[in-house]
Specification:
CATH architecture: 3-Layer(aba) Sandwich
Oligomer: single chain
CATH superfamily: Gcn5-related N-acetyltransferase (GNAT)
Number of helices: 2
Distance between the termini: 8 Å
Mean pLDDT: 92
Strand order of the largest sheet: 1-2-3-4
């Protein structure tokens, strides 16, 4: 998680996030849903200037869903979506050690 992710995460933070994500155009943030339940989130940030053909991808997944290939599938699906819908040649991610 980036440092900008609030901690502790409050109900007000969740309400702000839902309003923010709902208003995006194009949509860049998505829920990861498993068996009809919210399991995590995934999204990307379109870069600018000389990096304009790159996106940074990020995701989180609830611990109960780890080890099942869910994040791998979500990253694969989002990558396919990005390449199909944006003029992008590079997708990257950073690692959080928190």
């Amino acid at each position: 998680m980036r440092d900008r992710f609030p901690h502790p995460y409050t109900s007000a933070d969740a309400q702000w996030w839902i309003a923010h994500a709902s208003a995006q155009s194009p949509s860049t943030d998505f829920a990861i849903v498993v068996d009809g339940e919210a399991a995590g989130g995934i999204g990307f940030i379109l870069q600018e200037d000389v990096a304009r053909r790159s996106v940074e991808i990020g995701y989180w997944l609830g611990e109960a869903y780890w080890g099942r290939g869910i994040a791998t599938d979500a990253v694969r699906a989002l990558s396919e979506h990005i390449f199909a819908n944006f003029d992008i040649c590079r997708i990257y991610s950073t690692v959080s050690l928190n």
